[in-house]
Fold this sequence. Notes:
Blueprint: H1 39-43, E1 62-69, H2 75-85, H3 91-103, H4 119-124, E2 131-136, E3 141-146, H5 154-161, E4 166-172, H6 177-182, H7 187-198, E5 202-208, H8 219-236, E6 243-247, H9 273-279, E7 293-294, E8 297-300, E9 304-309, E10 315-316, E11 320-324, E12 328-337, E13 340-342, E14 344-345, E15 350-356, E16 368-371, E17 378-388, E18 400-405, E19 408-421, E20 428-431, E21 441-453, E22 465-470, E23 473-482
Parallel strand pairs: 1-3, 1-4, 4-5, 5-6
Antiparallel strand pairs: 2-3, 7-16, 8-9, 9-15, 10-14, 11-12, 11-16, 12-13, 12-15, 17-21, 17-23, 18-19, 18-22, 19-20, 19-21, 22-23
Amino acid sequence: KQEIKPEPEIKHPEPPVDEPEKEVVKEKPVKKEKPVKSQEEDDKPAPKPKPKKEYKRDPRPHLNLVFIGHVDAGKSTISGHLLYLTGMVDERTMEKYEREAKIKGRESWKYAWAMDISEEERDKGKTHETGSGYFETKDRRFTILDAPGHKAFVPSMIGGACQADVGILVISARKGEFETGFEKGGQTREHAMLAKTAGVRHLVIVINKMDDPTVEWNQERYNECVDKLTPFLKVTGYQKGSYEFMPISGLSGANMAERLEPGICPWYSGPCLMESLNSIPVPELSEDEPVRLPIQGKYKEMGLIVHGTNYSGAFNSGDKMILMPTKVPVWIDGIIHEGQEVERCFPGDNVQIRLKGVEEEDVHSGFVLCELKRPVPACTQFNAQVLLLECKNIITAGYTCVLHIHAVAEECTFSQLLCTIDRKTNKVLKKQPPFIKGGETVLVRIEVQQPVSLETFKTFSKLGRFMLRDEGKTIGVGVVTKLPGISSDKDEQ
């Protein structure tokens, strides 16, 4: 019999049941055991810290020169001729200037064209803006600032004088020209006074155009100029030893790079201009002081570039800085000194700086580049000691004029007349006078509409000197004595 096997049961798959999620247990990190140092390893000296990068600087001392004087005295010609004599302008370029000047009938302006670049300046023969150049000798390096001589461009001249250590006051010996510049209304007097107020500590007075047919190296004419200028310079504040005189010819180059030959000028045996510049003492500037670089101007060339003279401190390319008084942070993208890209800006250097992090319209002349941790104070009012010069009328509280301090030109108001002061003894003569007049020394409270970066004169003299101008004339000079809320009363005494 065949066995009948039962058919296997068909098992249908049961629906899947959601299983509870398994908790993920994080493994605790295994602590690595520190290797035990052997006695020999303990005895090894600790690794030395990396030395700071050293920036090499030209060992020759550096001076900033500003050429000042009456219009047409020969400032640009002397500046350009110095560049030519020191090899900063080559022969081919000078021949080009000579050809172009001859076409316009101004052959004697060929050296001036090395400084006057714009067509308007070349056509009229008048400098409008302070030009700059540089030259060097075996012992020193110099930056030239060629200031305009016309009275309409005095604000530009002030900006140039504020950057300089030494002033070269150019006097024309030509008959009639010296008298025009030195008399009332001439720029010789005003430029010398403004240079002293701006901080120019040494003055070289060059009696130019001595080879003119009206002069012909005449000793009497030279002595006449010296005798009239000497008492004026003493009144202005220049002490004996802080100024010197010499005869030169800017066009022919006589007594500029080499001494005069006895056959040309037998009565003068002193040094030439270059010798004199090499003997002027150079101020010692510290890199540890706070950075103070007032911006004189700006232009666009592969980014925003500002230029000015670094008054104190030092900084490097790549540093983060701050612009005062707006407190805008900026980055130093590049530093150009004497036409070359450098990594570090030293105190006293006249430089162009490429900035990042700020728009062109947010930067103006008079802004000060500072360190983040040590910015310059900014305020809208301050106390000042002012020496009033020639004023047409009496001055009362509420008087307005233009304030010039370093690169700033801002309208200001005498909000309060505090007292009049005796210049010799510095004692208070009268408190809260109802009015003041020309010739008086006064302590006043000055207010401006926009914040201005400045310091008291005792704290930092270059940012504490100022000039006051009204109707195209300088009506007063002064120093900042107190910043309300920042400086103490002791600074004012």
